[in-house]
Amino acid sequence: MKLDDVLKRSHQRYIADDFLATDFFDKRIALIVDLISRDNFEAVKAKLLDCYGDVEVFFERGDEEGMCLVSNLSEADCVVVEGCKLTDTKRFGFSDFVQIMKRLRAPGGCEWDRAQTHESIRINLIEEAYELVEGIDMKSADMMREECGDVLMQAVFHTQIAEEAGEFDYYDMLTELSRKLIDRHTHIFGENHANNPEEALAFWNEAKKKEKKYKSSGDAMERVPKNLPSLLYAEKVQKLAKKSGFDWSDVSGATEKLKEELRELEEADEAHRFEEAGDLLFAAVNVLRFYKIEPEMALREAALKFMRRFEKVESLVSADGKQMNELSLATLDEYWEKVKAEERQ
Predict the structure, then answer these.
(1) Is 102:160 a contact under the CB 8 Å cutoff?
(2) pLDDT tens by residue, 288-326
(3) pLDDT digits (tens, 9 = 90+) for 201-211
(4) 3-state secondary structure of 217
(5) 108: left (phi > 0), else alpha (psi -120 to 50), else beta?
(6) With bands split at pLDDT 50, 70 and 90, how would you rate the model's confidence at 8?
(7) Cα 145 from chain centre
(8) Side-chain-side CA neighbours of residue 142 (13 Å)
(9) CA distance 128 to 146
(10) What is the CA radius of gyration of the chain?
């Protein structure tokens, strides 16, 4: 490969500083980086490795020119990376990901991907989000890496569908996101100054209130997504009420309310039990909110703990040659307490 041959092709040409400041570019066409300063050579080399992997590149250095892997590249005046096929790419960036999605949805692409709509894949995003949360709870970097990608894929999938329908495109989506981050971080990009995370959040919420043009706290409550998990939905509604001063002064008030709702459920007739059960759960969320406990995650952990202990009880009963459904509740409770005692050791 000669530099003159590459220059005849479609290419992107950057001076080194501009290349270092560029986040996304098309790796399908030739990339030419002019190294104006020797000081930035190592940074350019590192970025080439990060974007392309250890691919073979063309270099010019004074009167010398040749080919080498990026990792073996030494100071040069000019570095050229030939455009690579998508299937030959060593390192992928966001623009590569978008090209893959476009290919899958294009005529002749994947029939399943082409058949999907916003509605048909809506549940996938919820499932992927919960899998990411599980990876976080498990403190598994490997699982988080995979599930972060799956969550991103859902956002890109919806954006691609929207672009094809003329609803919005990738630039619209990224512009709105970037504008939101700038406008709501008034303590970073504006006049405000935050001394702690609480002040930063307060500035964010105030900017959001202006942006959304909430007419009242009730209006803000109406805009909380109705398809959130019920415990999370209740928590968000309560937090909005708190901002208007409609809240207990401390947890004791919330605790007494929880006790009251339990009594009302116990005393309710069949026609009102459903309503009172909802009031009881809503009151329980209030108590947890004062303790800064996420009710959704707390209940999930409780269910997992119950399942773990139940399986151990089942195993112990079976080891004793018995069947659980043949034992009294008192006997099963003895097994349960034994399992609990073992866990505490």
Answers:
(1) yes
(2) 999 999 998 899 899 999 999 999 999 999 999 999 999
(3) 989 988 988 88
(4) helix
(5) left
(6) low
(7) 10
(8) 0
(9) 10
(10) 29
End-to-end CA distance of the chain: give it in Å, rounded: 70
E-only strand ranges, 53-178: 56-61, 64-69, 78-81
Could you please state the CATH topology (level 3) that the domain comprising 94-168 is classified under. Helix Hairpins (1.10.287)
Contact 238, 295 (CB under 8 A): no
The CATH label, of 3.40.47.10, 3.50.40.10, 1.10.10.60, 1.10.287.1080, for the domain at 202-295 is 1.10.287.1080
- Using alpha carbons, select from 305, 315, 316 the residue that is nearest to residue 343: 305
The letter for the amino acid at 207 is A
Nearest to 234 by CA among 274, 273, 288, 271: 288
* Segment 64-118, tens digit of pLDDT: 889 999 999 988 888 999 888 888 888 888 888 999 999 999 999 999 999 999 9
Would you mind telling me the total number of residues written for the chain in this entry? 345
Report yes or no: 31 and 14 within 8 Å, Cβ to Cβ. Answer: yes
